[in-house]
């Protein structure tokens, strides 16, 4: 285990609108506001998109079990923003439900908002961390510096 400590910096309250593509919009905000490290909490609904719902088998490097969803799902999730040389890297895990079905996984692709997503982004100041491609897994992982 590795860790770094810091403090809560700015707090952003964000309302995503119908048909916004969630991850690029978060990335746009992070670029505009120069957010290098943050935590995200959100609730709302997603119209359609993709989730990585665990690996097909527990091997390294993992092969993601990809699921698509459509037709509007209630959603709540958590995520992080850390940067690398390519800019903000958004990592979101969410649980979503529709009728008696539930999906949980890592939000990917062009996941679109249905009606609204409300988010709170807590900037993390003073932490020494970024995102880098891990050569062993091939994943863009958090690196504590």
Please explain how this structure is put together.
By secondary structure, the chain is mainly beta. The protein has a single domain, classed as Hypothetical protein, similar to alpha- acetolactate decarboxylase, domain 2 (60s Ribosomal Protein L30, Chain: A). 8% of the residues lie in helices and 66% in strands. It has 1 helix and 8 strands, in the order βαβββββββ. The strands form 2 sheets. Strands 1, 2, 3, 4, 5 and 6 form a 6-stranded antiparallel beta sheet that branches. It has a two-stranded antiparallel ribbon with strand order 7-8. The model has no long low-confidence stretch (mean pLDDT 96).
Tally of individual helices: 1
* Average predicted local confidence, pLDDT: 96
* Beta content: over 45%
SSE order, one letter for each helix or strand: EHEEEEEEE
The largest sheet is: 6 strands, antiparallel
